Amino acid sequence: MVAFLVAIVTNYVTAQPPKWAENTLLVWSVFGALAVVSLGLFFWERRLAAQAPENGVRPVPLGRIAVGGHSMNPPAVSARVQGR
Questions:
Q1: pLDDT digits (tens, 9 = 90+) for 2-12
Q2: CB atoms within 10 A of CB 25
């Protein structure tokens, strides 16, 4: 993911560099600040996930739902259904 973002920024900057992109100190400072904020948000999310929720039920992680292969779509039925 990081390599993809760096590639996008590199291609953008080398195609038609804006004036602010010529200041390498500014570019690397912004990049470093974004990296620090990203790490801070990551650890904050982990801390919040480790705390017990108010109602006692923990939310299921998204990765666990995606791996389970469950679908939110109703099942396809080939025969006629009666009743509930």
A1: 777 777 666 65
A2: 7
Q: Give the Cα separation of 69 and 8 in Å (integer).
A: 33
Phi/psi of residue 55, nearest 5 degrees: -90, 0
22-66 residue pLDDT tens: 888 998 999 999 999 999 999 988 887 777 666 666 666 666 665
pTM tops 0.70: no
Which residue shows structure tokens 């690397």? 28
Residue written as token pair 């400072």: 29
pLDDT at 71: 64
Task: Provide the CA 52 distance to its chain's centre, in angstroms.
Answer: 23
Q: Look at the alpha carbons of 35, 40, 41, 46 in this order and tell me if their dihedral is positive or negative.
A: positive
Positive or negative, the Cα torsion across 5, 9, 14, 16?
positive
**Cα separation, 25 vs 32, whole angstroms:** 10
